[in-house]
Design a protein that fits this description.
alpha/beta; 5 helices; 7 strands
Length: 195
């Protein structure tokens, strides 16, 4: 990431140095996940759509610990793998909106709330800004080479009441809580970076 762009990493010290952590990342561009993996202070394991695991990319993604998920159904293997990462005290990366969009946390899916309630892991909000501002001249699908991309880590927090309950009501309440915290972090990140 540092050889292709000029990432500016802010607040990485906020990431707990040990224990299970879920990084909830906005997703406006394909480079957001790799940008976080290349700049985070701890290794991050993302749930990545199974369609990305093809050819040489398959061995590479598996080799760096990424998790394959089938988005067409409830993928129990992916859920189990993600919970195992957290049980080992690792870091799970999640795009809470489920797919690439505006990157504004406007519509969260319940997956983040489920993993947070089930594992009790701390959640670190992360905002990547600048990756989708404009297309590159050489490769239009990527941000311009050597352009600045900001990666802003927020304060860790937990959701739920600590009981581990995953009822529909608990998931809904946690999702509302998450959306409020993630949206507030996005606003702070924009103010901090001037983007």
């Amino acid at each position: 990431m540092h050889s292709l762009w000029r990432p500016r990493v802010l607040g990485a010290w906020r990431v707990p140095p040990g224990g299970p952590v879920i990084m909830a990342v906005n997703h406006a561009h394909n480079v957001d996940g790799p940008m976080l993996m290349g700049t985070a202070p701890r290794p991050v394991h993302f749930l990545i759509k199974k369609e990305a695991f093809v050819g040489p990319l398959d061995a590479f993604l598996r080799g760096i610990g990424q998790l394959k998920v089938d988005r067409t159904s409830a993928d129990r293997n992916a859920v189990t793998s993600a919970l195992e990462v957290l049980a080992r005290g690792g870091v799970l990366g999640i795009f809470p909106e489920g797919t690439r969009g505006e990157g504004d946390f406007a519509s969260l899916r319940s997956g983040l709330a489920y993993f947070a309630l089930r594992s009790g892991a701390q959640i670190v909000p992360v905002v990547v800004l600048g990756s989708a501002d404009r297309p590159g001249r050489l490769i239009r699908a990527l941000p311009p080479l050597r352009s600045r991309v900001d990666v802003v880590f927020g304060d860790p927090f937990t959701v739920g009441d600590g009981s581990g309950r995953r009822t529909r009501k608990a998931l809904d309440q946690a999702t509302v809580q998450l959306q409020e915290r993630l949206t507030a972090h996005l606003k702070d990140a924009r103010r901090l970076t001037g983007r």
